[in-house]
Amino acid sequence: MLNRIVLLFLLTCFIGNVKGQETYKITYHAFRDGAMIKQDPIVLFVSKDKYVITKESIISGQVRYPAEQIFADIKNRKGYRTSLLSEKRSISSYDPGIYNKLEFIQQDTGAKKILRYNTKLAKTSINSNAIEVWYSNALGLNAAPNLIGQDLGLVLEYRRNGNTGIRVAAIEKLKSWPKEFVQPLESTLLDDLSYKDQLWKSRFIQIPIFQDEQICFQPGIQSDSVLRFAEGTVILKKVKIPEITSDSQAFIEVIQKSNGDAYDRTGSVFLIADDQKQTFFDGMQNGMNSLPMYTDEKGAAYPGMVRTEGYSPVLELMRFFTPFGISHFNDRVKLKGKTWQDSVSYRQDISEFTSSLSGKEVYIGTYIGNYDKGGHQVSLELTIHPGGSNYASGVQVMPLFNTTNVMEMGGQGYPTMFAYEKGLEVKFTLDKDLKNVRLRYITTGHGGWGNGDEFVPKANSIYLDGQLKMKFTPWRLDCGSYRLYNPVSGNFENGLSSSDLSRSNWCPGTITSPVFIDLGDLSAGEHTIRVQIPQGPKEGDSQSFWNTSGCLIYE
């Protein structure tokens, strides 16, 4: 009798152990508005004591990097994330948030049948989204394809805001747990923040160009890391750009601090155009007077500012304006209830220039006009983001003009040609017909005091072959939004700060966005672009002027 009891006990333990090791492979598909959508299926491997969330592409060897998997230790209520960054590199981290508690409103049993299983419905809210999960307890398992509702049972369907979600497509019982899915070793784990940072950065290409470089006025200043021109007010670097796919977007980001200069200054990030034999770089090396001149109606000459046969001006990627003394002067001025920002980050989409960058070695530079020995501190990075929605896919660029005198300290004078009726007139020749042509145009007004063009709205008129294509008044009313970037802005008796004042398309501490002007289809041959602005007259030693840049964008 005793032997039969022992045998029965051992058999029961064996059966219980086998059942405890039962493993299921569960496949989920995404849906929207009731219809399945084509997406990499989520795959859940689950047993009593653990489960793994992965993707079908990872299992089949068709992975698109980076790809993340989650390992949940049900028994010890611990979760781990592993990201495959490449075929040979992966990172892992303990995730303290995998078993976060959510409050669910429970609904009646048998809300609906999914596959052959009766389900229960539970509802919750996450980040203002209404969440519904249908789960089953029939298999005695606790898991979910996205960690939501895992303590309720086995989640078979997840729905967000009523119309999108994921739903089980197949449940398959396996003979054993897949040996490739194991809990990460504790010794290999990154801290959570480092893991997320590395994963995020693996999703796009980062090309650092400048790192904490000084832009200042120091005659003779040199550096091993960058090329310097115009007494230190221009820095330049040759950069290797990888091939850029047509679905990629490109962004540049400038981070700027004052390093001693207290004033708001014009800044520009530019690309040396290389579509013609002579480039702006030739003038930087050999003197600006070696470049073609543009001559205004009174005979004043401006080197290197407009396109001619055989020469192209620089392509302006970004126009930005430094605030009054950010960071360097933060401790000099204290205001009750205000905390000054420590730096300015200027970030802009420049995807229209990908054809000019892709697979090339190019010169990229940054200019800040200033007269201070300390000047400014600048970092610049280019990032390329594949697989996005590129508004400028397949377009080409032709530089036409750039009146921003980036070589101010190296022989380029202020652009005052707009004081005359003709304004700026540029002739260019097309060797073939072009479709859907646009002018990418940046404009900002400067100079003078109260009556100068910086503070007086002025209409910009753009003509193509004598026809008016656009007339608008560039003006910024939101400069007061950036007060906390301007610790040493001048203050007036009426309670305003200089940085509050509205200006001709710029504010201290901001980017000036380009305007895209439709020019239609252009035929092969010669064309003329004319920019007309009623520039204000000179007041004593103060002269108004306009910094403009323009390039053709076409298919």
Write a concise keyword list for the protein shown above.
single chain; 555 residues; mainly beta; outer membrane lipoprotein receptor (LolB), chain A; Jelly Rolls; 2 domains; 13-stranded mixed beta sheet; six-stranded antiparallel beta sheet; 33 strands; 8% helix; elongated; disordered N terminus; PngaseF_N; PngaseF_N_sf; Cu2_ascorb_mOase-like_C; disulfide bond; Peptide-N-glycosidase
CATH superfamily of the largest domain: Peptide-N-glycosidase F, N-terminal domain
Largest sheet: 13 strands, mixed
CATH fold name of the largest domain, please?
Jelly Rolls
Number of strands: 33
Strand content: 35-45%
Could you tell me the mean pLDDT?
93
CATH class of the largest domain: Mainly Beta
Gyration radius, to the nearest Å?
Answer: 31 Å
Look at the helices and sheets and give the structural class.
mainly beta
Q: Which ranges are low-confidence, i.e. pLDDT below 50, for 5 or more consecutive residues?
A: 1-20
Assign a percent range to the helix content. Answer: under 10%
Per CATH, the architecture of the largest domain is Sandwich
How many discrete domains?
A: 2
Oligomer: single chain
Helix segment count?
Answer: 5
- Morphology call: elongated
Distance between the termini: 91 Å
